[in-house]
Amino acid sequence: MWVWALLALAFAAATAAAEGVEVNPDRARINYMLNCQGCHLPNGGGVGDIPQMRNFVGNFLKVPGGRAFVVQVPGSANAALDDAGLAELLNWMLLEISAAQLPEDFEPYTAAEVGQYRALPLSDVNAVRLPLIQKIALLSGN
Q1: 64: helix, coil or strand?
Q2: How far is CA 95 from CA 3, 25, 72, 123, 128, in A?
Q3: Which one of 16, 35, 55, 86 has the fewest beta carbons within 10 angstroms of its own beta carbon?
Q4: pTM of the full predicted structure?
Q5: Cα dist. 26→31, 68, 92, 116 in Å?
Q6: Residue 58: how many CB atoms within 10 A of its CB?
Q7: Which domain does 68 fall in, by range?
Q8: Lowest mean pLDDT across 14-23, 50-59, 81-90
Q9: How far is it, in rounded angstroms, from Cα 90 to Cα 105?
Q10: How many structural domains does the chain have?
Q11: CATH number of domain containing 7
Q12: What is the pLDDT of residues 24-71, one digit of tens each?
């Protein structure tokens, strides 16, 4: 599994570089610590009502609307990062804490894509999240 995650990270970094998305794992890790870790813990866990991302968040990219959701949740949409910085952070995070759950055709976020999704932040996260979780469960046969 560890080898697969490293290969996925290398592939995503190469793909992102080809699309003009700079990937700097050290910078992304620091941005995760500054913008996400307070609620999602160093390992992608959750605190209180904050859901766990570890070994799960990549599933959102398998269902319609899930890719946008990952950007539009308040923690992402309101992060004190520009669109390129948020794209880099999300790509790193997905590969670092949920690589096994990503779709086989995973494509890294670009700054332009992040900017489009951020322009439409969610007003009711749970109303959007629950149907996505249900779609994910159907995909996995649960």
Answers
A1: coil
A2: 12, 10, 19, 27, 23
A3: 55
A4: 0.82
A5: 9, 25, 10, 26
A6: 22
A7: 2-140
A8: 14-23
A9: 16
A10: 1
A11: 1.10.760.10
A12: 999 999 999 999 888 889 999 988 888 999 999 999 999 999 999 999
Cβ neighbours around 108 below 10 Å, total: 23
Between the CA of residue 12 and those of 66, 107, 108, 112, 136, what are the distances in Å? 19, 7, 6, 17, 23
Residue 20: what pLDDT? Answer: 55
Q: How far apart are CA 8 and CA 129, in angstroms?
A: 26
DSSP letters spanning 11-54: HHHHHHHHTT----HHHHHHHHHHHTHHHHTTTS---TTSPP-T
User: The tokens 């080809």 sit on which residue?
Assistant: 18
What is the distance between the alpha carbons of residues 99 and 29, in angstroms, rounded to a whole number?
15
